[in-house]
Amino acid sequence: MDKTLFLVGLNHRTAGVDVREKFALTNLVDFEAGLLSTCHLREVMALSTCNRVEILAIADKATARDVDMPEAIRRYWAERCEGPVDVLRLHTYAHQSLDAVSHLFCVAASLDSMIMGEPQILGQLKGSYRKAVEAGCARVIVNRLLHKAFSVAKRVRTETAIASSAVSISYAAVELAKKIFGDLSGKTALLVGAGEMAELAATHLLTSGIEKLYIANRTYGRAQELAKTMHGEAIFFEDMVERLRDVDIVISSTGSPTAIIRAKDIREVLKKRRNRAMFFIDIAVPRDIDPDVNGLDNVYLYDIDDLKEVVEENMAHRRDEAVKARAIVDLETQAFSTWLNSLALQPTITDLLGRAETVGERELAKTLKRLGNVDDETRAALEVLVASVSHKLLHEPITFLKRRTREEGSSERFIDITRRIFNLDGDPVNEEAHLDRKAGEPLPNENDCTEQDYSK
Predict the structure, then answer these.
(1) Which sequence positions are flagged as catalytic?
(2) How far is CA 125 from CA 132, 371, 417, in A?
(3) C-alpha radius of gyration, the chain, whole number
(4) What is the CATH number of the domain that holds 48?
(5) Minimal CA–CA distance to 220: which of 260, 193, 242, 247?
(6) pLDDT tens, position by position, 374-399
(7) In a domain, 303, yes or no
(8) Greatest distance between any 2 Cα atoms in the chain
(9) Are 433 and 427 in contact (CB under 8 A)?
């Protein structure tokens, strides 16, 4: 293939948040268009999220030989972000060819994410790709590469359990609720506190089909804001205990220095609920819920330490599944390599078929001239015959080229031999090349050969 792939980037492992903020890209389309022309690239696609910025570039091999492409990309990137290139150089990584392909597949499959297996990166990647396509910066290779990346991500999620277990505290809390109640549809939940963890927990609860969501917070206005966002109902903090009689799941995450839900309160609540099960999740430090609550019948209480154990176990499970996922990435990378090599084959295959078609048309014209008047049906039959013979004769050489490319991972040697054998480049041929070395006579020329000549 006469093109080279490059990927230059930084992420949460190589750069702190200050560096990631400094070199984040706000206008991807403008950045891509500028980089395309400045570095004489064929294709470009950029991805910028809170945890990573990556630039995928396709260059002609001749350009890649003359220019340190990763460094050229860094310099343009630093200039656009008005930051020092030496800082960018210190915190970036660069991949080339199949290493770039493999890295992109890992990113799409969330094997390189801060929380491995989380799906957000795939949506972000699709959004960046769509912008590059609309801007005309993504063409044949980027198109194929990104669509393959999307299918790799789907295959990883389908064939492994890398995303099946909870690895965030809020998500783990909701997953535990599912184990207690099974289906959460028809259940009612109360969030005590309106911080980030409460908001994440609310999102997971709603996704799981919770029927009713109450939100209590010491600042009632904040409870109202979150309730509006989550389609829930804000309640006054002072009314919280009274509302517990209607609640199945309680997730508490306030900054209170002392417990705000006491065991004696829950005893009274259980009587009003006729001892229907209640599930408490205390993700506050210090704890919001009196530990004695766990000693009551039909009450299940988990604190943040319990949840951390669940998360750690699940993270270990995801790491095991990542081994299977990386095997899928390796297989798909090799498959993409085969496709890349086939791009180099295509012009030669086209030239072969074109050469056969030209020779066939020329010889058919000679034959028709000798035959004289020929009806349209006979002419059409002869045209089909000539085309069929040409394609059948070339079927084996073309199949050979494709097979050896797959087996050896490179097609350059076989392409060179094929083009020389069929003289597809129209190189001038020395007159002595047509001499019979034994007899000293010229070999027959294709333009004046007859069946008799070949039979000698």
Answers:
(1) 50
(2) 11, 64, 41
(3) 34
(4) 3.30.460.30
(5) 193
(6) 888 888 888 889 888 888 888 888 78
(7) no
(8) 115
(9) no
